[in-house]
Every structure is written in structure tokens, then in C-alpha cells.
Amino acid sequence: MQEKEQKAIRRAGLRRLRPRLTPRVFGYLTEEKETLRQGFAALFVSSVGELAAGIVLAGIEGRLEELVGLAVLIPAAIGMRGAIFGAMGSRISTSIQTGLFSFSLRRGVLAENVLAASVLSLASGIFLAVLAWALCGVLGVRTELSVVDYVIISAVGGILAGVLLLGITLAVSRLSVSRGWDMDNIAAPMLTAAGDILTLPALVAASYLIGIPVFSALLALALAALAAAALLYGFRRGSGGLRRILAESLPILAATGTIMILVGLALEDRLEHFLTFPALLILLPAFLQLGGALGGILASRLASKMHLGLLEPRGLPQLAAVRDFTLTYIFAGGVYVFIGAASHLLAAALGQASPGLPLMAGLTVLAGLLATTASVLAAYYGSAVSYRFGLDPDTYGIPVITASVDLLGFISLIISLVVFGLAG
């Protein structure tokens, strides 16, 4: 009898507690409904774009087989565009929220960010090329591309994609101001998706400039000299804001690029699995981008709150940060299912091989859960540590996320492939 009474008391207590908890949870989601609407819209739009990039990637499988070693460069090249322009969007978003933004290309925050993105795009292209060539030699990864080939593909591809991305970033900034959008919710997914879509065709186009006697060598030399001159100008003649962005960005982008080249080396090593099922190639850009986009949204929100004094960079996240974590998992739950199913359907429509809809959905959700957890941890601790050391979390947050989540996301995808018996 006593046990029954205790159970009745517990049930009564739960009934009394539920009315208090339910409004609190739904109240928070209602409060953030505009964030959910903007975030889901940006993520689904960017995912559709990434699937288009995946179709391009599946479509150049012949070029990947022809130019052995090109796959080493692809994740780093597309990831670097997202890191540079995603961080730029995050800095602009913070300037909008703090009232420091003005749409001027002559001076101010926007002008400094435009110059910084231009210099960093060119310099990172040269860095990634030399690093890819060097690591292939050190680690014994087979490549048929020379350092000159890598420099041309990486730098020219980066310039072509960077010019277009710069225009998109400016357009998003102006629309955010004029329409009252929260740029934190749209910049990271939109710009990283645009970077992936534009970089792949740009790399392929640039690959046709290699192997031309004399011209190719002179072009590579000119690009390297231009990158050095741009860096020298930025540090010597640039404004204080420009110098700070360059000084803070270069080390983190170097680390980011190194990690993403490792992703490329892993991709080159596992390329046969993706060539066997081109549906996985269609999935790959969307999957890698989504982890970075989710983390980018979170990092931008956390950085803005830290700048505004609404969040402290603690070792144990505050409730305000945990609520943002919850939003990130809500976003992930819907979009990972979508890209897994869409990759299968697109492959079927294009006559490409796929493991099947259940397997594609299952492996994407499993890998996505792992990648989202990595995104959340990287976003919070990347922002918190950089803020504690007096660095700009807008500059450090997204590159850290892009690098760590690309690597951990790819590892998560391989783990998922092994779990579902699609890789050994």
C-alpha cells in the first residue's frame, strides 16, 4: 500500500511539474521562432546549393581520376572560402548589432573586411597549394600534380570563387540591414554553401591552365609574388582594423588549412568508396558544409552575445549557451534527414549508384549526430577561449569550426559507412 501511495505522489508531482516545464520549453521555442524560421530557411537553401555542388563533384569524377591528387585540395579549397567569408560575415553581423556598420567601401568595418578577405583568399590559395604538394610527398600519397599545378589550381580557383563570394557577402550585408534580418542566422550557411558551389567549378576551370609550357610556371610565380605583395601592403599600409584581422586570421587559417588538407588526404585515400556510390559524392559537400554551417550559426550567436555582455566565456556553458545548443540540434534533426534522402533521390534521377534510401538516411543521421556534437563543442569552446585571450571570436570561431568539423565530420561519415557495412 505504501508503495502505491508513493507512486501516486510521484505521478501527482510530475503532473504539477509538467505544466511549469512545458510552457518554459515552448515559451523559449516561441521566443526563438524567428531564429528557427530564418535558420531553417538559410540551412535548407544552402543545403540545396550544396547538393548542387555535390552533383558537380559527382560529375567530375572522371577529372578526379584523370588528375590524381586533385581530391587532396578540394576539401581545403572549398572549406577555406567558407572560413574566410563566413568569418567576414560574422564580423559584419557583430558590427551591425553594435551600431558600428556603414555600407562604405572606402573606410570603416566593411572596407577593412573586403580588403582582408581579398588578401587572405590569395595568400591562403598559395599556402594550401604548397602544403598539399608537400604533405603528399611526406605521407606518400600518390599524386601526379606538381607544386606549380597545385599553385595554379588553388590560387586561380580561389580568386575566381572569391570575387563572386565577395559580391554575395556584400549583398547579404545590405539585405540584412535593409530588411532587419539577423545576419548571425544566415551568413554562415549561405556563405559556406556559396563557397562550396562556386569553388568546385572554379578549381576545375583553373585545372585547364596547368601543363602549358612556360606559361604555367610564369603564372604560378606571378601569383606567389602577388600574394606576398598583398600581405606586405596589408601589414604596412593597411588600417589598424585591417592589420588586426590579418594578424589574427593568418595563424588560425594556416591551422585550418592544415587540418582540411588532412581531410583531403583522407578523401583521396578513401576515394574508391565514393566513386563506387556517386550518391556519396553528392552527399559529401552538403554533409561537410552542414556541420560547419550549424557551428557557424552557433558561433556567430555566441560571439555576438559575448560582445554584448550577455554571455560569459565559462568552462561550463551557461543556460543561455545551452539554449543555443538546443536550437543547433533542432536544426540538425531536420536538415540531415533531408540531405540524406535528397542525395539518394538525386543519384537515382541522374542514373548514379546509391546504397539505397534507408541506408543513405540512416548513415547521414548517425554521422550527422556525431558531427553536430563536434560543431557544438568547437563553436562554444573556440569562441570562449578566443574571447578569454582578448581575441575576436568572430575571426576565430568560424575558421576553428570549419577545420575541426570538416575533419571530424569526415571521420564521422567514415565511421557511419563502416557501421552500415559500406566501407572496410
Automatic annotation (TrEMBL):
Keywords: Ion transport, Magnesium, Membrane, Transmembrane, Transmembrane helix, Transport. Its main location: membrane. It is found in: Membrane. Signal peptide: none annotated. It is a multi-pass membrane protein. InterPro entries: SLC41_membr_dom, SLC41_membr_dom_sf, SLC41A1-3. Pfam families: MgtE. The chain crosses the membrane at residues 40-61, 67-88, 109-135, 147-173, 185-204, 210-233, 245-267, 279-304, 325-347, 359-384, 396-423. GO terms for molecular function: monoatomic cation transmembrane transporter activity. GO terms for cellular component: membrane. Residues 74-205, 285-414 form the SLC41A/MgtE integral membrane domain. Belongs to the SLC41A transporter family. This is MgtE integral membrane region.
